[in-house]
Write a structure and sequence with these properties.
Layout: H1 2-16, H2 21-30, H3 36-43, H4 47-59, E1 78-86, H5 91-98, E2 104-109, E3 116-122, H6 125-135, E4 142-149
Antiparallel strand pairs: 1-3, 1-4, 2-3
């Protein structure tokens, strides 16, 4: 009986030491600054295994390790979601022009009532007004826009977790 319990315990530890991409990515999404040794300890594998897996994920284009900022701590306390109607033959041209504006944090073409939805950050309502009046209105193909001010953002992550 004692042997069976030891064997079951060993099997349990061995099954927990298998590193999956999902486990690794979930941990890196929480804190990408962790050393491979700390990641290995948390995931119950060796540091070389972690380094090889990270290198493989980076080479495959599945993982990028980047620094992110907190816009509010940098003075960009005003967040706005802006929905745009764009001439159908100018959609790609408009998106290529819009993505150059540093105020825009993310953007997507969408189905439904609008053609493009974007999220942008500003220091003040004056900056937002200037953006809408002078930049959006001058963007190729933009017919009209609707601006929504974000009041209580719960997930301010630039890169939403995938796993």
């Amino acid at each position: 009986m004692r042997y069976c319990l030891k064997y079951a315990s060993l099997l349990h530890r061995m099954s927990n030491s298998v590193l999956t991409d999902e486990d690794l990515l979930r941990l890196l999404e929480q804190d990408a600054s962790l050393s491979s040794e700390k990641v290995a300890k948390k995931l119950n594998v060796s540091a070389p295994v972690v380094r090889r897996r990270i290198r493989k994920l980076i080479q495959a284009g599945a993982l990028r390790i980047i620094g992110t900022t907190d816009p509010e701590k940098l003075g960009f306390s005003l967040a706005a979601v802006i929905a745009l109607n764009v001439a159908s033959d100018k959609l790609n041209e408009a998106m290529n022009e819009l993505i150059k504006y540093p105020e825009i944090r993310w953007m997507s073409s969408v189905t439904g009532r609008f053609d493009i939805i974007l999220m942008a950050r500003f220091r003040s309502t004056t900056e937002l007004s200037d953006f809408v009046t002078n930049k959006l209105s001058q963007t190729c193909g933009v017919k009209n826009s609707e601006t929504l001010i974000c009041l209580n953002i719960k997930n301010a992550s630039v890169n939403n977790p995938l796993v």
